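Ticket 4471: requesting a sanity check on a complex prediction with 4-O-methyl-beta-D-glucopyranuronic acid. Repro inputs:
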Amino acid sequence: MRLHALTWPFLALTVAAEDGSKAWLRYAPVRCNRSCQKTLPSHITILNANKTSPIFTAAEELQDGLHGIAGKHVAITRGCNAPPSSILVATVSDYLVCNGTTVPDDVLSLDEDGFYLHTHGASATILGQNARGALYGAFEYLSLLAQGDFATLSNTSQTSNPHAPIRWVNQWDNMDGSIERGYAGPSIFFASGKIVDDLSRAREYARLLASVRINAIIVNNVNANATLLSAENMDGLARLADVMRSYGVAIGISLNFASPQTFGGLDTYDPLDESVIAWWENVTDELYARIPDLAGYLVKASSEGQPGPDAYNRTLAEGANLFARALQPHGGVLMFRAFVYDHHISEEHWKNDRANAAVDFFKPLDGKFEENVIVQIKYGPIDFQVREPVSPLFANLRKTNVAIELQVTQEYLGQQDHLVYLPPLWKTITDFDLRVDNASSPVRDIISGEHFSRPLGGWAAVVNVGTNTTWLGSHLALSNLYAYGRLAWDPTLDPETILDTWTRLTFSAHPRVLETVNTLSMTSWPAYENYTGNLGIQTLTDILYTHYGPNPASQDGNGWGQWMRADGDTIGMDRTVWNGTGFSGQYPAQVASVYEDLDTTPDDLLLWFHHVPYTYVLKSEKSVIQHFYDAHYAGAQAADAFVDQWDSLKPLVDKRRFEEIRRRFVYQAGHAVVWRDAVTSFYHNLSGIADQHDRVGHHPWRIEAEDMTLDGYVRYTVSPFETASRAFAVVTETNSTTGSASATVPFADGVYDLVVNYYDLYGGHSQWKVYLNEKLVGSWKGDMEDTLGHNPSIYIDGHSATRIRFRKVKVRTGDKVRIVGVPDGTEPAPLDYVAFLPRGIVD
Ligand code: GCW
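Returned structure tokens:
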């Protein structure tokens, strides 16, 4: 059936459910009438492509895109004689076979995966250095089309080459289908110890990755399970590789160092043992027999309890080279993680410092790795914190290939229930000039291999998509995946420009949508940093449990080394050479001297490098403690504003996505207050220093649950204390009896937002109702473990603390407020406080 030009956009709009699954590749209709359609190609011509080639995929995508976006049906043809008004898609070499040498020089010298896109009127030529590159060119064409950029589409000529050859993603998927630090449901690859039968989501994922020019994926957790190497699972991996190959995405796997012993039946896993070497060679041969283009391996060894070469007194290089040599005959790459440290160090010793570990371990091994080894280095010396200095290891490996490791999954950064647009954070790292040998040496040039003339290098990001239709659990979080790919291709791109394109493709080009998504996203990381941990103190989350909500005390007093050394008077890690752990000395001299000196260290990393009194005065002329108080308040205020900002888009965003995003912003606004209160109370309690603005510890609009008249509720001492207002909450007397908490409203007559702080635990779906003078104001359920993505908590703490807000409630002095809680399972309908907030107050 031919669709009439006037009816198709309507049809497409009503048919396509906006559930987020198509992400930025929606191919949503843009205005294009008949005469506009005439300016578009009428054929797609491909050269030399079988059905599994990315070239063929490119043709199908172009066909779908032209139809979905512009309502034009276009046929696919093959062969050298392209009809007029065609999009020709081919590799450069196949094109030359047909057309002699009629291409510009820069097309002949494209880098691997690079492409050439040339359009003239309704004709287009898309050539890839390889088939994958041609597909990237097709996606570029489609991106322009989907943005309605017809001017560029009919007249452009561009060659585009990647910044680095390695542009990978990592998934931390376990064989049982769970995902370590994944916040969007179970694995799309694994279930019950095997590769799933239905790989349609894997195919869709490959499509997203290819569209942002990611060329490989490690499919399983770095904390690897050797059973992936069974014959049945290797066959499963081959199926997976087949599916992803058509999008030019190669697969690779993580390996467990001890596999020869734990899985192979040998009595050793010594990397220098002949039988171990032969075992790995055999495994590698078997894998390549099934997957000839296997990208390679990723190995986490001698880290966080994972086995490694240290068990046999072998070096990390000897361990890495074992795999690298097995891969060499097949052209595979070994990504070897630099995340090696001792997690049992003692804070008693002033000079102990986990941040030193990577350079301590790897610098002496520079030059000892095989040529196909790439050392994969987390961006900062600790672990994906809200702000870290650059890992100094990037400056210390001159004769070793390196790649940067980022996290798209927001492990320490709100687990996709808080909006944090990450590229501005990443840029603080990749644009950082390490001044190696006193010369310009930005991190991006080191990881590309350019600076030290290394043949390999690039990017890896832990993504952890799951079966959730939105991929990451949050529609807005997908901008991070999109931007990751764009930056790995070209790290000089500006985060706002990337975001603008993403927003056009994901929502619309309406100026208000563009502006609002920009404001929300660009303020999100500063806001999150403000309310979770600033001045370089790290994300003050619970590092011993779920890495989600606040628990500042958990930083200190354990072997994990994410210390802040906070006591009653002072705070911060002294990482100077003259008096501290010596970490600053791991940087090249010009950078080291900046960090060594308190006066030249930037405020935002001050406590990373220095141990100072709370009264120390910053460059901003505020004391450290007052900066803490102000920043945490400012951060929560900013998060509160996100809700209204998003609400302004209601008429411009489809209902489902509007509501799903809104729910998260409402939640984030509340949880930001939980963060603010917890961290400021913690430091207030520890330092005894008052807030100049008298906010900390003073909440005039709150009625504490423990002060209310309780019937069936009892007082409960919360731990950590700062995760409850005034340290107490109330819980139902038993798990099967209803509780009621009531009080007389002492506030003046007026219109207030009625807020209830409560705890939503894993283990039950309690129900609450709030009444004013026995008239129901609202009711809700404790079901966030099902509706939100963050790791739930089984405790009454900073992870489970949350709040609900009923807007514009009319209240009179003396009204009776009553909250009724019905427990469920192990969740005793916990309540912290109720607040009546006048307009504009965030408390
Ligand atoms: O950030 C920490 C995480 C671990 C992770 C480890 C790593 C896969 O908390 O869950 O393990 O880093 O990067 O290896």
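Notes from triage: Residues 1-16 have pLDDT under 50 and may be disordered. Leaving this open until the requester confirms.
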